[in-house]
Amino acid sequence: MSPAERPEFTALRxxxxxxxxxxxELETFRRRAHRAEAERAELGGTGDLESARHRVEDLEDExxxxxxRVDHARQRVKELVTRLRFLEEQMTAERTATG
Length: 99
Fold this sequence. Notes:
99 residues; mainly alpha; 2 helices; 88% helix; rod-shaped
């Protein structure tokens, strides 16, 4: 079995992909936060109260959706870590049995 085919390497690649996607989402969140701060600074407190309330509601909805996505990604990372640990234990047991 080549090293590239080993299950622990596959699990590690999956974990790396999830971490990369989470990093990309985090960068997106940062850009949105910077943009929102810039918009807030532009308004300077003189904005329309009704539109501000709608904006807050929209942001709260978006925030909830983003929380769900992060929670889902977090769960996927936990699953991959569990899988990786299992594969590491199997590999150790295999070495012990053959060694």
